[in-house]
Write a structure and sequence with these properties.
By secondary structure, the protein is mainly α. It is built from five helices and two strands. Strands 1-2 form a two-stranded antiparallel ribbon. A hairpin with a 5-residue loop joins strand 1 and strand 2. It is globular, with a radius of gyration of 17 Å. The two termini are about 30 Å apart.
Length: about 150
């Protein structure tokens, strides 16, 4: 494994630009950076959720999602790079289907709240919707891995 970062700051972004994994410098308000930032935010909220009292199964599932989000971030940080495969989407959908089978039919929308973990889960859901909007906006200009778009949806 490569060396970890030795400094938190680099001063290379003081001019309003940031570097991508391929060395390209782009403006910090670029759609690609918006996508990266919102994925990072989603991953952080999932980190809060898994710090709560949840089952080992839920923890394992959410941790896998965190790794997948890092992979999507990697794709965004290196233009034309793809990492996520359709197997990740199938895993996600399969687990969602299993959870839905255990729930009673949904007859109305649920207001966010109820418990701290429920509120954070709703926050993760809304951030994920922003990630989706950001990635589809980016995809209009620069190709985003189609599998990653399906995963986020």
């Amino acid at each position: 494994m490569a060396n970890r970062l030795t400094k938190i700051y680099t001063k290379t972004g003081d001019d309003g630009k940031t570097g991508l994994g391929d060395g390209t410098r782009i403006e910090k308000f670029n759609s690609r950076i918006e996508g990266l930032g919102s994925i990072d935010e989603l991953n952080s909220v999932i980190g809060i959720i898994i710090s709560e009292d949840i089952s080992a199964k839920e923890y394992e599932w959410l941790e896998k999602i965190q790794h997948d989000l890092f992979d999507i971030g990697g794709e965004l940080s290196i233009p034309n790079y793809t990492k996520l495969t359709i197997l990740k989407v199938e895993f996600l959908e399969s687990n969602i289907d299993k959870m839905n089978k255990e729930l009673p039919p949904l007859k109305e929308f649920i207001l966010p709240g109820g418990s701290r973990i429920s509120a954070y889960t709703h926050l993760a859901r809304t951030i994920c919707r922003r990630v989706e909007r950001n990635l589809f906006k980016l995809n209009k200009r620069d190709k985003v891995n189609e599998v990653s778009l399906k995963y986020i949806n």
